[in-house]
From TrEMBL:
This protein's name: Vacuolar protein 8
A GO BP annotation: autophagosome assembly
Lipid bilayer topology: Lipid-anchor
CC annotations in GO: fungal-type vacuole membrane
SMART domains: ARM (SM00185)
Family membership: Belongs to the beta-catenin family.
PROSITE patterns for the chain: ARM_REPEAT
Amino acid sequence: NRTGLYEPLLQENEREAIAELLQFLENRNHTNFFEGEPLRALSTLAFSDNVDLQRSAALAFAEITEKDVRQVGRDTLNPILFLLQSHDVEVQRAASAALGNLAVNTENKLLIVKLGGLEQLIRQMGSPNVEVQCNAVGCITNLATHDENKAKIARSDALRLLVDLARSKDQRVQRNATGALLNMTHTQENRQQLVNAGAIPVLIGLLSSPDADVQYYCTTALSNIAVDAGNRKKLAQTDSRLVQYLIALMETKSLKVQCQAALALRNLASDEKYQLEIVRCKGLTPLLRLLKSSFLPLILSSVACIRNISIHPANESPIIDEGFVNPLIELLSYDDNEEIQCHAISTLRNLAASSERNKKAIVEAGAVERIRILINQVPASVQTEMTAAIAVLALSEELKQRLLAMGVLEVLVPLTASRNMEVQGNSAAAIGNLSSKGEDYSPFVQVWSTPAGGLCGFLIQFLDESQAIAFQHIGVWTIEQFLDGNDPELVSRIAKSSEIVQAVTRIAKSGDRSKEAKSEKGGDDGNDELDGDIYGLAKRVANTLSEIDGDKKQ
């Protein structure tokens, strides 16, 4: 030839393989290249010493797998993995592309790693050729979506190389590397190995990338890393501006990046430090905008975030003043998504926790009326939060009569017989809070017998000896509040109920028996304080009921 260099002659079987392959390629739409003669022809070229034939095989594998991805066996993967070991960049590039295409299939992901493909790809990640790097990292990104592969990748040198390649100046390499890093953040152990490999500063640095996919992968990866308490401290130590970066990303054009930024802030807001910092860095305004959007993932991520932020008492008033209350009340009716409803009512409950002003603002915005309408239509998880919210609002001396006038007893009383223990307990606690230091007990008299067995049925049920001590305690304590209220009609109805009187007397007497039993055992079961409290309480109530009965007889 012109260069004067000797080119090896083709072997006879190689000539035949070329001829056969050309025929198969002409009829490619009806040919399965992963078995039989077509695969044998490709394998002959792949295992040839002739680099031109290897290129042809690699390119054919890349082109075929671009359109036809299916589960394949080792007979297909072995020639591709052999081609990956070539020193020729074109062969490497095409072979890594073919392997990446096949790695979309679940079964192939496992077999590729089993046959040593991970080690080959790690070698290709260090290639000076950007195309080879890009394809190798893309293939590892696909392999890392399988749980069985994640641990192997995490223990290999791939993590360090992925962190390095995430800094690549080539956007495709960067995109594939950050995508692979994201896929490694789904288990606690892998997240830790990722953090140890130095991923956090790289991921934070790439939040300002002009590429929306890179932003998305990095934001989501950081969100997953922030699930672990120890990692949240490392994030705080790495870059003090992380919260500001994420708040800025809630204003970006990409909806999926906005969504992940809010979720990352939600996970960070598991810590008190971040709950305060998000408010201080003006994160409430973009969160409210997302909360008001019509896109479900945005609503869910923002309401989950504000729920965590609202846990801190210092944030209650700023959130209310920002204008969250009415949109949160609207989300109570969002029956397409139970999680959104739960976060919305949980946030309202948090906002009402420590301020009379805030409780009043929530009631005046119509939250209780909305709860009253919805409470029997929502799932038990939402009912749990709604009854807990009423219990918190019912602690307000100023609002008690207002809540009673709204008819909350009509919904609370039946819910004390709910199948869900938390709903039962919260409903009973709300009734108990409403009963304490009341001005007008006529609303309680009105629900004495109905609905659903009425107040009387609730008290008898909670005083039953089969109930947990905590429930019996709520029952006895609520009766004491009614007796202290001294409403003649209500007190008379309680005293006339032989079941209530007998149940309270039984609890009072069982305290003495419990003490005797414990003294014989010579120890306690850790419930002394609660037990002693209920027995002392029951004795007081029993004595009061006995005095009322004595007064009647006189």
